[in-house]
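Dear colleague,

Thank you for sharing your sequence with our group. We've completed the structure prediction you requested, and as agreed, I am returning the results in plain text so they can be pasted directly into your records. Please verify that the sequence below matches your submission; if there's any discrepancy, let me know and we will rerun it promptly.
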Amino acid sequence: MADPQGESDRRTARAHTLADEVGTQAARKLKARRDGAPGVFFGLGMMGLVGWSVVVPTLLGAALGVWLDRHHPGAHPWTLALLVGGLALGCLNAWHWVAREDRAMHEGEGHDDA
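Please find the predicted C-alpha cells below.
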C-alpha cells in the first residue's frame, strides 16, 4: 500500500529545493545586472596591475644589486641574486593578489563548487 503522506512530503522537499535553486540563480542574475559586466578595459587594467606588481619588485631588486656591486664589490655579484629575489617577491605578490580577487569574486556567487 502506498504512503500518500510520505510521497507528499518528498514532493514538498523537492519543490523547496527547486525554489531555493531558482531563487539563488535569480539573485545572482539581478546582482550581475545591477553591478554590470566588466568590460575589456577592466580586464586589460587587471593584467596591467598584475604585470606591474611583478615588474616593480624585479626592477628594484636589480637596481639595488647594481648599486651594491658598484659600491661594495665582492666575490659574488649582487645584481643577479637580487633580480631573482625581486622577481620571486613580485610573483608571490601577484599570486596573493589574484587569489584574493578570485576568492572575493566566488564569495559573491553564493554557492560552492566543491
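Summary note from our side: The chain has a mean pLDDT of 80.

Kind regards,
the structure core
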